[in-house]
Amino acid sequence: MSTTHVVLGLLSQGERHGYDLKRDHDATFAQARPLAFGQVYAALDKLARDGLVKASAGGRVGGPDRTSYALTSAGRRALLAWLAEVEPPVPHVANALFTKVAVALLVDDTGETSKDYLRRQRQAHMARMREFTKLKLARKAPLAQVLAADYAIAHLDADLRWIDTALARADQLRDEMLATSVAKERR
Amino acid sequence: MTPVLSARSLTFTYGTATALRGVSVDVEPGELLAITGASGSGKSTLLLCLAGILRPQTGDVVFGTRLGDLAEAQRSKLRRGPFGVVFQFGQLVPELTAEENVALPLLLSRTSRREAFAAAHDLLGRFGVAEVAGKRPGQVSGGQQQRIALARAMVTSPRVLFADEPTGALDSLTSEAVLSEIVRIARDDETAVVLVTHDATVAAYADREVVMRDGQLDPPTETMRTDGAA
Predict the structure, then answer these.
(1) Which end of chain A is more exposed for a tag (fewer CB within 10 A), N or C?
(2) Pick from B93, B87, B94: which is nearest to B107 by CA?
(3) CA–CA separation, B220 vs A107, rounded Å?
(4) Full-model pTM
(5) Are strands B192-197 and B32-37 parallel, antiparallel or unpaired?
(6) Taking CB atoms and an 8 Å limit, are A129 and B204 in contact across chains?
(7) ipTM
(8) Which residues are registered as beta bridge partners of B195?
(9) Over the stretch B58-67, which tens digit does the pLDDT of each residue have?
(10) B208-213 and B65-66 strand pairing
């Protein structure tokens, strides 16, 4: 998982302190390992050095914990560029796929960015699966090659099933995340 | 390339349930097109409309001529000639032998018995089931039944083969063998193949994929090549 991009995604919802970012991360990615404060600040330092976030001028009161951060226009461009990229279709990318879907929902609450991403990811996975299928169909393909292709196809198929289910549930997930976000605003 | 089969703005409803909502799709000669989607997405209805088995309420399918302009008898005749059809369960006639099942479309088109059985014998050999030519469907395995059904669908040398979940009831190795045959049909005979499946591993055998969702293509105006090109 790319912590820096997740932090950019969380900041797309508005200025946040490091503490807020950790709390929002753990709420959004409840199944993932909680983010350590050290990881949050390391990511913010790197992003600030790269000009992708900036410390808020009015927020620097009483030490670094009170500093709040905001996305810069370069940061928004970097975030959108990351969301536009499909993940390399290799086995065991499900965690990365979910991260991207959830971040896409933070950036665009209509859900269209996440669906568009899922469709393109599906296309990339299908293209890879077709390559492995071609390997299997090749005349006199060695059995070891066929079995390796079988393994890769089975894993890609698992991801594809997840992508199809995620597409079918995208609106529901968007509604749930919006409801959580509204409840947080009210607190 | 001029499409061999072209559908424009097809809509189809079963009573109050809408299965197709304005679907347009072209099939190129010799291409293997997969129609995928979840259960109830409309993919089988689309195949049945493309094959002239169902008549869409609006829109039309063009195969040289508009299928909507043809009488039922003329559309049935298409399925004994330029259209071959195979379903998940081969739908072979249980009382007939494999050889008689395969020869049947030719016999119905008044081809001589000698020619029809010679063609059936050739195709059973090509699909690797010549040894069961004299057996009835109930006496052979599911994989063999499906190969016999494919041979029957191909006996008229169709220009388009329609296959609805042709490997849905088969184990993975038998499925692979049947799909390899289907790919060979598309490549060697330049027969266009329209393959309906809910299974991505089956769709990966195709040159191109269209995804159905809620009676529409998803995305609505785009078809996706499995090689990644738009």
Answers:
(1) C
(2) B93
(3) 24
(4) 0.79
(5) parallel
(6) yes
(7) 0.79
(8) B34, B163
(9) 999 999 999 9
(10) unpaired
